[in-house]
Automatic annotation (TrEMBL):
Protein family (similarity comment): Belongs to the LysR transcriptional regulatory family.
Gene3D superfamilies: 3.40.190.290, Winged helix-like DNA-binding domain superfamily/Winged helix DNA-binding domain
SUPFAM superfamilies recorded: Periplasmic binding protein-like II, Winged helix' DNA-binding domain
InterPro entries the UniProt entry points to: HTH-type_LysR_regulators, LysR_HTH_N, LysR_subst-bd, WH-like_DNA-bd_sf, WH_DNA-bd_sf
Organism: Halopseudomonas pachastrellae
Protein name: LysR family transcriptional regulator
MF (Gene Ontology): DNA binding; DNA-binding transcription factor activity
PANTHER family xref list: HTH-TYPE TRANSCRIPTIONAL REGULATOR YBHD
HTH lysR-type domain location: 1-59
Membrane-spanning residues: none
Source taxon at top rank: Bacteria
Pfam families named in the record: HTH_1, LysR_substrate
A cellular component term, taken from the record's GO annotations: cytosol
Length: 295
């Protein structure tokens, strides 16, 4: 299937915007990449790239052709998966973009459980927000997305949803850790607070609720890294907030408590794919596993 490899040359140049960089990633000579692009342009009768002083940019025709390449590659993966399934194999690869909160424990546990049943299946996992996830689905870089705060999109199929509350997280030696029940936001005012950055689902839930109440939490530390925030709680009697699915597991130094405030919203963790895209068989199998997994 050399013709598919040559199409991949063009796709790679489109991704990185440079023949030289694409050639390095593909482990071929730049002249070979350039020659294949010129051959395609001659065959189609139109330029696919604008040659700029600092790289390559797709023309309108190039945008259409790259979309064709990516959809064709995705379809080929589907056909390969179906052939393997017919042969009684459960090989294949599942590509998924996941929100940071679900990347620490939830998704690793599900992948490990699925691979116990299908040990020949490989996974490619990227961590990103809903913007990154939608881009990956639409460019056929990913089969699935597992993300929070997915707004309705006509070309995105919501396959499964899991409601998740926001929790207060603290070190087990924190004064509020001795309280067995839920904690109110007003109780949090007496302690330093470290918060996830504003683009995260948990922070957006918190800010939306606080905007309607006469409560102000001033973050002493902000970060887009959940790992950093949870690590910080080990060195100061501070509080942080995390979607329940991402809170530390039992036995960790950290503990979590639900929020007691009436009407505090929950987040939806959404499993999604590109609408009308035929997924590889093994990706469908993983979707079914996620929908029925418990614990």
């Amino acid at each position: 299937m050399n013709h598919l490899r040559f199409l991949h040359y063009l796709d790679e140049v489109a991704r990185v915007g440079s023949i030289r960089q694409a050639a390095e990633r593909l482990h071929v000579a730049p002249s070979a990449v350039n020659r294949r692009i010129q051959d395609l342009e001659d065959e189609l009768g139109t330029p696919l790239f604008e040659r700029l002083p600092r790289g390559m940019r797709l023309t309108a025709a190039g945008e259409l052709f790259v979309q064709y390449i990516r959809s064709r590659a995705a379809h080929l993966e589907q056909v390969r998966s179906e052939i393997e399934d017919l042969q009684g194999l459960r090989r294949g690869r599942v590509r998924i973009v996941v929100s940071q909160a679900a990347a620490g424990s939830y998704l690793p546990k599900r992948i490990a459980g699925f691979r116990q049943q299908h040990p020949l299946v490989e996974f490619q996992v990227q961590v990103g927000d809903h913007h990154r996830a939608l881009d990956a689905l639409r460019s056929f870089e990913s089969d699935l997305a597992l993300i929070f705060h997915l707004t309705p999109e006509t070309d995105i199929q919501r396959m499964h949803e899991l409601v998740q509350p926001l929790c207060v997280v603290m070190h087990r030696d924190h004064p509020l850790a001795a309280q067995p029940g839920a904690i109110s936001l007003r109780q949090c005012l007496d302690f330093p607070v470290v918060l996830p950055s504003r683009e995260t689902a948990g922070r957006q839930l918190l800010d939306t609720y606080l905007a309607r109440r006469s409560i102000k939490l001033r973050a002493l530390v902000e970060s887009n890294s959940f790992e950093f925030l949870l690590g910080y709680l080990r060195y100061e009697q501070a509080l942080s907030f995390q979607i329940q699915i991402g809170v530390p597991q039992a036995g960790d130094e950290l503990v979590s408590r639900e929020i007691a405030d009436r009407g505090f919203p929950a987040a939806n963790l959404v499993l999604a794919s590109l609408q009308n895209r035929q997924l590889p068989v093994v990706a469908y199998a993983f979707v079914e596993y996620l929908m029925h997994a418990t614990g």
